[in-house]
Task: structure prediction
Amino acid sequence: MKFVESVLHVMLGFVCTIFNLRLLLTWREYRQLPPRNDKNPVMWIGMSGSGKNWDWCKAWFGSGYGGKEYWSKERVMDTMNDIREYDIGSTLAWFVVFFMGVFIGWRF
Result:
């Protein structure tokens, strides 16, 4: 299933570059922030309080208790991989746009 998702990201990058809609992909990723799922939720970590146990508890209380937002590496890397796959499709589309421009300029 991950392969299909990667192919779809490449296709999105390709199509959005062909039609000059690349900002839609950035908007799509921003809408997904903070990246989270049931396995890797967004947590809040704080450095003040009463020892190590308090930091662990405060991670679940949120910013209202002085915590700082923490995104797990796995979730951040998922977002970065999505962006990389968009860029692959965008690069392929750039060559198509470039050579179509050369062809149209040469032909007409």
